[in-house]
Every structure is written in structure tokens, then in C-alpha cells.
Design a protein that fits this description.
The chain has 177 residues and is an alpha/beta fold. The chain contains five helices and five strands.
């Protein structure tokens, strides 16, 4: 991969305060390949600021080690019945965006419905269906666990697909406006 273009390695991130999924995907000879995938976990018994610092530190370690060319991040979405969840998720996305800005690494945002539709044909596919789509896409023996890993890989796949269709896809920007 040393000779590949700088943005060929995509870091997909499924943000969460307790569990953040990450997946590094690249294209080689027309095939998508997984370089690494996993989760960053924070402890519920820690204060919010410590959890955010741990998430930031963990993501920076992933970025520093693998040096992806671009980060693809899922947009914030939450039901109105759970405003507290949306606020906590916003904090997590904020430190993820900060980690990208500090490198700096280009950052693109994708709606969950856009990712799901690309992989399954339905913008409202359940997590299990995304896991199965990722298992098939990469020829894995079993579906990635926990679902956050599959979601992060799906976001990276989405970016690789859209950047190939539209090479001038906006690399940075605010997903809210």
C-alpha cells in the first residue's frame, strides 16, 4: 500500500460515547480490503470529560498508526424521544471531528440511511442486515461483532463507492449546513 494514493485508505467511524466502531478499508486491484477494524470503548462509571478524552486519545492512536487519507463519519441521528442520547452522541462526534482536524485529515459525513441504502437497498435496514452485507462484501466467515464494527466498515465502503463515482466529492464540511 506504500505506492497507493493518499486517500485510498479510508477510516470509517461509527460514533458513540460508550462504543465507537472504526474500520480501515482500502481498494486493491479493484477489490475492497479491510486493513483493521475494531471498537473504542469508554467506561460508563467515568466522568463525561474523561470518557471524551479516552475516545479522542484512542482515535488519535488509530489515525497516527495507520495514517488514513480520509475519515468518513456517520452523521448524528437520534429520535426526538431521546434528546439526552443525541446530546451525548454530539459530544462524541465533536471529539472525533477534533481528532481529524488536529492531524489534519479530510473528513466527510454520511447519513446512516445513505450507507444502509447503498449496502442493502433499504435506508432503514436493521443492524443485523448491515452486518450480513459486510460479511458478504468482504467474504468473511462470520459477521463482524459488535455491530458498531460492521457499521464503521459500511461507512468506509460508502465513501469508497461515492468517491469513485464522484472523485470531486467534498472532502470536508459541516454536515449541518
Amino acid at each position: 500500500m506504500e505506492s497507493s494514493p493518499p486517500d485510498s485508505l479510508v477510516l470509517g467511524v461509527d460514533p458513540g460515547l460508550q462504543i465507537t466502531g472504526y474500520g480501515l478499508v482500502y481498494r486493491e486491484a479493484g477489490q475492497l480490503r479491510i486493513l483493521e477494524a475494531g471498537v473504542l470503548r469508554t467506561r460508563r462509571d467515568q466522568p463525561l470529560q474523561q470518557r471524551l478524552a479516552d475516545l479522542h486519545r484512542g482515535l488519535r492512536e488509530v489515525i497516527d498508526h495507520f495514517q488514513p487519507g480520509v475519515m468518513a463519519l456517520e452523521n448524528l441521528y437520534s429520535h426526538y424521544q431521546r434528546p439526552q442520547t443525541a446530546i451525548l452522541m454530539g459530544h462524541a462526534r465533536g471529539v472525533i471531528c477534533l481528532a481529524a482536524a488536529q492531524i489534519p485529515i479530510p473528513l466527510v459525513h454520511y447519513a446512516a440511511t445513505q450507507v444502509k441504502k447503498l449496502l442493502t437497498g433499504s435506508g432503514h435496514a436493521p443492524k443485523r442486515q448491515i452486518q450480513e452485507a459486510i460479511r458478504r462484501e468482504f467474504g468473511l466467515q462470520t459477521a463482524p461483532e459488535p455491530p458498531d464494527v460492521a457499521d464503521s466498515l459500511a461507512i468506509a465502503v460508502c465513501h469508497l463507492h461515492f468517491s469513485r463515482l464522484r472523485p470531486t466529492v467534498q472532502r470536508t464540511g459541516d454536515p449541518l449546513g
